[in-house]
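Lecture notes, continued. The same structure-token format from the folding unit now serves as the input rather than the output. Read the line below as a description of shape only.
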């Protein structure tokens, strides 16, 4: 697996009403390296429904050890996140997802507190 050498670094969110969305780039082979892009987006509102899918899964207690290419840098993610992205990756088109363990900068306690507090609101705006 050919990986970029520079580590990925989250950019600072523009406001507390912003989040980050993950674009998973397509691949025809399940074994291909995973390439994603992380971009900021405003939190969804009643007037502007979200244009992405949300992924909820168990990630507590896992150490990020699986490498993916994110915005041309190396990002380590948990095994559960890695497996989920691999299974959800399309063959032809990019796919937009909201995955908490990746979009939240885990190194910033204030960001984690703010973003976690808004999770219920974000999930409530999604359609099944």
């Amino acid at each position: 697996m050919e990986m970029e050498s520079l580590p990925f670094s989250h950019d600072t969110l523009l406001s507390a009403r912003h989040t980050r969305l993950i674009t998973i780039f397509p691949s025809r082979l399940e074994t291909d390296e995973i390439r994603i892009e992380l971009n900021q987006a405003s939190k969804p509102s009643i007037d502007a429904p979200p244009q992405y899918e949300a992924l909820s899964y168990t990630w507590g207690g896992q150490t990020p050890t699986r490498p993916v290419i994110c915005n041309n840098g190396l990002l380590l993610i948990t095994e559960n996140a890695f497996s989920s992205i691999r299974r959800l990756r399309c063959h032809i088109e990019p796919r937009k997802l909201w995955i908490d363990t990746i979009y939240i900068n885990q190194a910033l306690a204030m960001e984690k507190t703010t973003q976690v507090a808004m999770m219920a609101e974000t999930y409530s705006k999604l359609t099944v």
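Point for the exam: The chain has a mean pLDDT of 84.
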